[in-house]
Amino acid sequence: MAKFVIAGKANCPYFAKAELLGDELALNLPGFKIHKIPVDPDHWDTWLKDLCQKNNWKHSKSPIVWRELLDRGGKGILLGDGNAFQEYALTYYGIKCELTSGDLTKIGTENEETFHIVEQEHKKVLASIIPFNLTISNPESPALYFIINELLNENVFSKDIFIRLYCKNQTENIEGIFMEIQDLASPHLRSIKVVQDPAEAFKDCDFAIILDDLDEDIDEKNEDEDLEKYKNPYINLAKAIDQNAKQNCKILISPFNSRNETYALVNLVSKYLKRINPKKYLIGNSMCDEMIAKAIVAHRLRINPAYVSNVIVMGQNLSDSFYVDLTYARVTDFDGAVWAKTGTHWLNLISMVADKQWINKDFISLVIDRENSVSEMLRRKSILVFAQSIVKLINLWNLPHEKDTSLYSAIVYAKGNYGIKEDIFLSIPVKFEKESYFCIKNFRMSDQTESVLEEIIADTKTRISKKFIDDYHVHF
To answer: Where are the alpha helices (DSSP H) in 220-303?
Structure first.
């Protein structure tokens, strides 16, 4: 099969001659394919220069014709100008163009007029697009590979998504991720680009997914070390987002390797957000622990984890110390005395667990150890639950969910809710509705939950200030 590409100035009569000859060949030869690229005459020289540099060719005339070995976009073999193409067609197929120079000039003029009409229509289409700018920081995170397809194909965002992959250094891994996202061919994806400048990456950003991990040497920081030499990625990220993103930009923080410190990082970022309201547009991901807890309870009750609701993760601090509150937890489709259609009848979860000592003694330790035990069996770090928790949280935060009455866990601004008086972010129960979240009024916690929560707040506030905040002259 012969596949040829003909490119030239839109008003060039020789380009018109070559494309007419190509059309005749394609019409008469079933194995002959042709692709035409008309170029604005004002931009022809630049376009041709870039093309020749890319393919290591030497060519200076309009048109230029080349043959591709594979589908369009693959490696090409330069054939030459219009005369070379005519000679090729005559030699191999015995076909030539019989039009006069006057006819070709008229066709060239008509081509130029049509080209400008099409360009104007294209500009109108672009002007009608309302772009949704999604910026993903640290695209090399192992979570991205598992979440990007669901984010693009479930219509979580608008239909015109412009993705920016922000990284400090463009590596082969980044290039591979870029091509993989392109290969998804999502109908919702309008554009994707790799960006190394934070100002460009977060310019007019609508939603920012921060997957950056902390530097491994964070605990080895010298007290006398200059602040600018010490690179905590979250400080620069927070400043770049606040200065360049839209004022209503939603920010999700969910590092993988530094997941135990998500709570601290959310508090740190909130101190650098001046223009963007962190109390409304900043969330940290604690849903991974919630999903693990649901899975353990579901296994105990021999039901699907999807049938467990209102399992709440409270706190979550630097040492991975948190409390899972089952006070309001409920289950459906349980093999008990009362049967009903799934989702129509809910039962108190604690009442369904026969061994109450299991909840008080073994449950929390199972939640903490679950990820390590799975990783040991897989002989690699477990990533799927973590990735799915990101997708779930974005789904909840970015879609209406008007009929969803369930409680979920998220690291949000907690002061004034659930008896918390400190100006702090931590994992608490929230409801998602109308692309936003809110805390529950008149929410009654058990005495044990209140006691544990007070201890977590006191402990983590001190540790966050010592490890992250005081070093950067930012105080609660």
So the answer is: 233-244, 262-270, 278-281, 287-301
Share of the chain above pLDDT 70, in %: 89
Decide: 315 and 284 in contact? Cβ < 8 Å.
no
Can you tell me the distance from the alpha carbon of 315 to that of 293, in angstroms, rounded to the nearest whole number?
Answer: 15
CA distances from 206 to 75, 95, 138, 146 (A): 38, 56, 17, 21
Triad 33, 38, 41: Cα angle to 5°: 155
Residues 6+ apart with CB under 8 A from 184: 148, 149, 152, 153
pLDDT band at 321 (very low <50, low <70, confident <90, very high): low
Residue pair 308/298 in contact by the 8 Å Cβ criterion: yes
Phi, psi of 4 (to 5 degrees): -120, 145
Three-point CA angle 231, 232, 233, nearest 5°: 100
pLDDT of residue 294: 93
- CB neighbours of 201 closer than 8 A, spacing ≥ 6? 135, 137, 164, 166, 195, 240
363-378 vs 287-301: helix axis angle to the nearest 10?
A: 100
pLDDT band, very low/low/confident/very high, at 473 (cuts 50, 70, 90): very low
d(Cα 388, Cα 398) in Å, to the nearest integer?
A: 15
Q: What is the pLDDT of residues 33-66, one digit of tens each?
A: 889 999 999 999 999 999 999 888 999 889 999 9
